[in-house]
Amino acid sequence: MADDKPFTIESFYNFVKEKKLMGGKCRSCGKLLVPPKPLCPECFSSDLTWKEIPKNGKLRTYTVIHVAPKQFQAFTPYAVGIVELEDGAQLPGMIRNVTLDKVQVGMQLTVDFDAEQTTHEWPHWPRYYFKPTHPE
Amino acid sequence: MKGKPLVSIVSAGMSRFGKREELYGRELFVEAASEAFKRCPNLNPREDIKAAFIGMMGESFEHQGHTGPTALNWIGLLPTQAFRTEGACGSSATAIRCGLFAILSGLADIALVGGVEKMTHRATAEVTEYLAMACDFPFEQWNGLTFPGLFAMVATAHMHKYGTTEEQMALVAVKNHHHGSMNPKAHMQKEVPLEKALSSRVIAWPLKLYDCSLISDGASCLILTKPELAKKFTDTPVHIIGSGQASDTIGLYERKDFTSLKAGKLAGREAYNMAGVNPSDINVAEVHDCFTIAEIVAYEDLGFCRPGKGGRFIEDGQSQIGGKIATCTSGGLKSKGHPVGATGTAQAYEVYLQLTEEAGKRQVGGAEIGLTHNVGGLGATGVVNIYSRE
């Protein structure tokens, strides 16, 4: 499916627009490439295929950011963490729809997607984020 | 058996670190280089120095790139060949590595290696944004992560896996500010009580203000020579006897283990092997304490203690002056300051002072073997050097 799309970060975010998280999978050694990379760093093959990443996972570590760069200052304090999805892929992302002191390592999270960005500046990437699988 | 000298440090210099409103980056570098030249009267800088490697992380701070020739112009070294090295907060440790490559290859017998960064004229939000460029943009920065945020995630993982506490992290700050209070070139030369560190405002939970290193201006440099030439310039050379460097993923999220910085660990292993020494042989160490948790992780990665025991190591006073391995005697990035590009060679400057017994009030008696551990970004670059006195 869609293997004609280049295995790039731009393609990853084009899939995010379609509300999908997609990674590359090396047909030669089986390594999962999240984010997608044009060359398998394990076996140097470029024989790759797209694979959808499961939407559920668990939180491996996190922080609550109080001092943020300008473009994120309006959101402080906010939680960001690294989530291990059900196939073992890991992605960082904001954790929303949660009381900050309820965030904890091991909690079940599900991916969700923002409405498309309207900014005219590079990059035009939409954002995915995580929310509790079982709402409070 | 102690390894043979790879290269020798025959002189070193460092500017005062801090908020240096009056000076531009290249002028800070003059301060560092002037000290190094003054210490070494037998050196004719323009004639003798055959190559210069200068670390700087970001053009954004001063709206200035092309650091190599700029710095050399201001210290009178034109037309010597100049290179800028960049490895985020590890930029000038990679300059030392380039100096090793240059001298060991025989292309240059004498090299100047150093680093510089001018940061304090920018607002904190800008500095936060520029420093974040050393972590992954499309996934980490894009999702609101900052450097304190990334190291905070290392802290969260360490606390969860090993039971490390916020108090143990704060003790690193207390120790390093104590050491820094004895360093006349440190950015912040005052003690910070534990209560003050623990109650400071949250930057990125669990890291608070006093868990974070300082935003500083500064420069530092070393003069490296082939070991055979060292005695021509000084009676008290300091030799680099082991050196290692490794790389890791730019994004923390691509790693399995968040509680160790693998590049620093591998660099350490390579340096120990080359030097023929063990962690227990180290008397003084300058480790990369950009955040207090990073120093605790460094104890473990460098084998000062076992994995997970870093919190106990600081709690038991093993890393203070007088302890098992006096760590960050300069005050570290935490108290001496962290002008990112200057940090790697500034760590070597401190070890040079310790091994030539010029460290004043913070001198570690009888120090013979020293180590520096400098990481760039979230440990995507790791450099370890081991030093010995004559």
Topology:
The complex is a heterodimer of chains A (136) and B (390).
Chain A (H helix, E strand, L loop, with lengths): L8 H9 L4 E5 L5 E2 L14 E5 L3 E10 L12 E8 L4 E6 L12 E6 L14 E5 L4
Antiparallel strand pairs in A: 1-2, 1-3, 4-5, 4-7, 5-6, 7-8
Chain B lengths: L6 E8 L10 H14 L6 H4 L2 E5 L11 H8 L6 E5 L5 H15 L4 E8 L6 H9 L14 H16 L3 H15 L13 H5 L3 E4 L1 E2 L9 E8 L4 H4 L4 E10 L14 H14 L8 E3 L5 H10 L8 H6 L10 E2 L4 H4 L7 H13 L13 E8 L4 E9 L1
Parallel strand pairs in B: 2-3, 2-4, 9-10, 9-11
Antiparallel strand pairs in B: 1-7, 1-8, 4-7, 5-6, 8-12, 11-12
Helix pairs in contact in B: 1-3, 7-11
Q: How do the strands of the widest beta sheet of chain A line up side by side? A: 6-5-4-7-8
How large is the count of helical segments of chain A? 1
User: Mind telling me which CATH architecture of the largest domain in chain B this is?
Assistant: 3-Layer(aba) Sandwich
| Separation, N- and C-terminal Cα atoms of chain B | 15 Å
CATH class of the largest domain in chain B: Alpha Beta
Order of strands, main sheet of chain B, comes to 3-2-4-7-1-8-12-11-9-10
Helix content of chain A: under 10%
Estimated structural class of chain A: mainly beta
Return the CATH class of the largest domain in chain A: Mainly Beta
The CATH topology annotation of the largest domain in chain B reads as Peroxisomal Thiolase, Chain A, domain 1
- Indicate the mean pLDDT of chain B: 97
Determine the fraction of residues in helical runs of chain B and give it as a percent range. 25-40%
CATH homologous superfamily identity of the largest domain in chain B: Thiolase/Chalcone synthase
Structural class call of chain B reads: alpha/beta
CATH architecture of the largest domain in chain A: Beta Barrel
Number of strands of chain A: 8
> How many independent structural domains of chain B?
2
- Give the biggest sheet of chain A: 5 strands, antiparallel
